[in-house]
């Protein structure tokens, strides 16, 4: 893409959107929700594209991040903006428990991590004294006001979540373009081949798991302070896994921008358009959309768009590092 | 003048069934209210929150943007919590009966109102057991929030009355209850089984009990969604003698004019017997609409006086007396207990409301 | 105590049989095509609702409704396959989102057609108690346990002994090589989807007969089936049966010896432990390296 | 520089290697031959760390390697190829070499990569995807390329010459010998072509049923009646 | 009987075969030789329909095979023993071999043919219950060859059968091919070992860079000239 394009997109996201839509709390709420999903989708795609691991349990990290941050801010009284990254760290810490699963591959890994999500959910339900059990936590403090910017307002939430997601994209891109990114991609389907040329694949995979868990946990923490509420079923809901996966694949999980684009497209189309047309049957349309997308453009929306726009190959992951 | 009332309610997703049930009652309330010719009419705007908290918040914000005057709806404490906070921010009155968690009314919200609560259910269930003079009760409950809270409250109440209680929590995902009931049969040797869960749990527990036939048990008591017409019709084998909370007997007999009005409208719209979800949805909405009417007439509605108007409510309704305290809770709320008797549901507790004596001891097997 | 434990083992065994029934179809399609059919649970559910309609409208015993369920569910399975077979790129991941979309469509279609109310059989015959000494169960559980055994055995025979079954495995192992043997991969895969549809039909009727159904159940069924498939070792039908029974027994023993609130936890911990000891599941063969 | 003591490997009930003792010096070129399924590739797997023996010792460059993970052995200077080529599927040919160089050797040197590409005649395919787009012989060349890019001290070659045209084989052997001269690396090569082995190696080791049945100069080994019976079938003089 | 007529084929945008024409005669052994990357394997894949022809036609007994699916070509009695093994890794050795007889017309002879293959490769008999994915390179090659023989094809295409086999086994394989030739089967042999190939062949085609450079009856082939042509780039 020409350098102008990303700048234009950024300017639109930071200036145009709040200026034009900022007055509409409903739209901004939808956007924030979409960005939350985009953040998880991005972390999921990172683990898949770089770590070569498909996860069916990112809800595990999302929930741990959310609970960590909520509890730190409420019980230890930490400032919310400090508690959020600590939520990410908490999720990364939880990923330590997941390390044994790195020995597993393919669907075995995918489901092992799903099992972790279930286990964490049950622990959150059972550890009543800490988490409040199934009653959950109401009244989680919202985002603070920082230098005059009211982060707790819908616009503030939008700007903060957007910034975090973009920062994650930048991190993802940096890893991808490094030699480590190359080695990580090399491991897919050929782990032994990569190890006999000197790559410490276990370490690299573990690192990707931590990064992905951190991202997901941070997003989970952000969401907790946006929605001000948590309970085990919600925090570890399978929806935090499956919707981002759908969004990532829909947008093009092999591209940097695909998960973000996919999440926003799917969420907004569903909530704004389909729901308005068919108030209670709109999910059917969403299903049709997902299926049709895969049949029409198997690489996802972003590659499809860039093909249309530029008649040039999309900036797909595998070519980006050349 | 026409006022728009919003309803954020789960019509799809895990709470679809209860959400739809409550919505039926809300719609009946609109019908009945508009037919009264008070000079004001109500139009309903419904948004499905898909059983997802974030979408519930978005729904409230959309409704606020569409200039609704108040909200009636919501199901599930985890959806009502964030949604009612969004409503509070928008200064919108929020009336519900879909979440019994005590937390909801402890938040000190100015615009939040609820016509039912945990305590009312616990009172009814424990009251029935105490009346039976059982020596021991096994409480089998789902680890969900509402059920767990209720089970604990009932347990405390029973123990205070010297009844021996054993608690069996179960994960909502489980389908085979035989191992639990077998513990009740062989270890607890309890005289009563209290079920605190949802329909699918009741069916599972009752089936397991019918298979194992614990001989010590003299009564099986559940809570919501159990002593209903629907259960009587769909599971005739399982229901005989089973107790559950019920506001109305089945077939419905209303003593009051208000009740008859509700039942006729309900049957005209849905061609079936009204159930408890519909009743609660109806009552909460009716109280709200009446408050809107009053506020509109004395001119406080536009000035944000609706919540104060609603707080002044003191009404005898088809679920009993309703008033609201400072937190929006209804201190009068107390449930009644029904029992499945010969394919019908009779009210058996409290005595004042009873339509038939309870068949005791009695179990479905 | 022994009586409790015996009953618990027996209950776990029967529940395991039901789990296996739900998982077999998913395991077949996954094992032979590397396609995770996220709509599998919905197909099972569809069969259950067909049984419900047959019973409530026409008074048919659920067992007698199996043929109707077969027709409808197999047709749906064929439809799913026809769509999946159109995926040209990255079939393993893309089929995931396609079948997820189909699952959403089916769930909501079921919701619209049958409403959100819970349903279950009212057949007294199926609900009757069957008592074997100290062991109690519902008749439907026993009936479907036996069916489950028979189907797992039949499936195992089909895959390992019949020409068509072996062809199915050959296609999954190496598509090009299979074509060179004269195998039409599309037809073979279609056949395995139809067989999966048959299994889903029986599973659906079993669920309708022994427990309670509602529209949102499909997704949970898929996950359960998936977990058992992986626990079994992908592609192994005896593994599915063993894994499912192991899971069922672990869960019921947890209820008996500890608390039923921990039953899911125990199941998941068992799953992880098995995988950590046997990274390819109970019956998954290890691959040669180098 | 490489020493194997009493290596034994079992798979299930199958003894694939029993009591294998073997040693080679820096700069030596040794041929490893034997019937199909004798355990040659398995021995490579033991040396490079893919298979853990039930007993025995692997010493390389004075270090006990038995517990060392794969990547450490590679960094220590053990380079290997796979009999069934295992390219890094998602990368191009050039990227394959780059990863090997960056992680096996420690730093990237594009000039060296070009040199390797030229030597293996892979230059025209440098941008091709490794997984699709290469003929079998090219995949084998890529195997060698990856191993060379790590700058090994000992090169383990598993049937890399099989399927090469006669002339290509000769060229290849010459370059290998040149490499040995220039960098003093040792080569252990599995090959079924007796002529090639005889020309290339000073020493040949024969495995049969997981045991070393002969070890010596090519002439001596290929005249051993046991070797003729189980392996060459009298083809040595063809 | 098998006519390859001005065929162009390749992989996506990369074309490999350039207007290649050749004839394979019934009952003969036709050797196709040529340097690495000449397109020999690609030709065999094109005949089997594994890659589409962008131009030209391939006909068996006058019936066009172009556009036909691989499995239907295989059922027509053409069988390929592929290079690079292509075995069913997740199936046992015995199941691998059995799959060779998948076409209906071949199933009757399974037991007999299986016994014959085991006789040829005793090593496979020992390993019959082992998953093919765990075999050694040479053993897998035996499986691929044995599987090809199970089909009793009327036309057998063999891609580098000697690859990875120990010298004794190579002799065995060529013995088998010799016998098949004697039975009157049509064989197309791609082989790097020119010496061996020529010893068996009736007719020789030399390919280079996707074109046919030379086509001669085997007895007339001059090794030296062949050698020169090989490297005339
Ligand atoms: N993971 C495994 N499981 C079971 N058997 C195995 C495994 N790996 C290797 N084998 C067996 O060990 C034996 C030796 O295999 P290996 O690959 O070392 O032979 P090789 O000498 O390299 O033969 P070739 O010349 O055919 O390549 C073979 O019979 C093979 O079937
Ligand atoms: N899948 C593929 N995609 C793109 N190009 C390919 C592919 N397979 C082979 N090629 C190219 O086609 C050309 C011919 O390959 P082919 O395998 O037919 O050669 P060959 O004559 O069989 O060589 P060898 O002796 O190495 O087996 C080679 O240049 C190769 O790089
Ligand atoms: Mg080998
Ligand atoms: Mg070739």
From TrEMBL, chain A:
Transmembrane segments: 25-47, 54-74, 80-99, 106-124, 158-176, 197-222, 234-253, 260-278, 284-305
One GO cellular component, as annotated: plasma membrane
Pfam families per record: BPD_transp_2 (PF02653)
Chief place of localization: membrane
UniProt entry keywords in alphabetical sequence: Cell membrane, Membrane, Transmembrane, Transmembrane helix
InterPro entries: ABC_transp_permease, LivM-like
Location within or outside the cell: Cell inner membrane
Top-rank taxon: Bacteria
Keyword Aminoacyl-tRNA synthetase: no
GO molecular function: branched-chain amino acid transmembrane transporter activity
Membrane topology: Multi-pass membrane protein
Chain coiled-coil ranges: none
Keyword match Cell membrane: yes
Name of the protein: Amino acid/amide ABC transporter membrane protein 2 (HAAT family)
From TrEMBL, chain C:
CDD domains to which the protein is assigned, alphabetical: TM_PBP1_LivH_like
Principal location: membrane
Topology term for the membrane: Multi-pass membrane protein
Record GO biological process: amino acid transport
Localization per record: Cell inner membrane
Gene Ontology CC: one annotated term: plasma membrane
One Pfam family named in its UniProt record: BPD_transp_2
Positions of transmembrane segments: 12-30, 64-84, 96-116, 142-159, 190-210, 265-286
GO molecular function, one term: transmembrane transporter activity
Domain of life, source organism: Bacteria
InterPro entries: ABC_transp_permease (IPR001851), BCAA_transport_permease (IPR052157)
Protein family: Belongs to the binding-protein-dependent transport system permease family. LivHM subfamily.
Name of the protein: Amino acid/amide ABC transporter membrane protein 1 (HAAT family)
Species of provenance: Plasticicumulans acidivorans
Automatic annotation (TrEMBL), chain D:
Superkingdom in the source lineage: Bacteria
One Gene Ontology MF term: ATP binding
Every ABC transporter domain range: 2-234
GO annotations of cellular component type: plasma membrane
Claim: Amino-acid biosynthesis is one of the keywords in the record: no
Stored InterPro entries: AAA+_ATPase, ABC_AA/LPS_Transport, ABC_transporter-like_ATP-bd, BCA_ABC_TP_C, P-loop_NTPase
Keywords: ATP-binding, Nucleotide-binding, Transport
Entry's transmembrane regions: none
Protein's recorded name: Amino acid/amide ABC transporter ATP-binding protein 1 (HAAT family)
From TrEMBL, chain E:
Keyword list, A-Z: Amino-acid transport, ATP-binding, Nucleotide-binding, Transport
GO biological process: L-amino acid transport
InterPro entries: AAA+_ATPase, ABC_transporter-like_ATP-bd, ABC_transporter-like_CS, BCAA_Transport_ATP-bd_LivF, P-loop_NTPase
Any one GO MF annotation of this record: ATP hydrolysis activity
One of the Pfam families matching this protein, by short name: ABC_tran
Superkingdom in the source lineage: Bacteria
Keyword Mitochondrion tagged: no
Stretches assigned to the ABC transporter domain: 2-232
PANTHER family documented for this protein: HIGH-AFFINITY BRANCHED-CHAIN AMINO ACID TRANSPORT ATP-BINDING PROTEIN LIVF
Protein family according to the UniProt entry: Belongs to the ABC transporter superfamily.
Protein name: Amino acid/amide ABC transporter ATP-binding protein 2 (HAAT family)
Species per Swiss-Prot/TrEMBL record: Plasticicumulans acidivorans
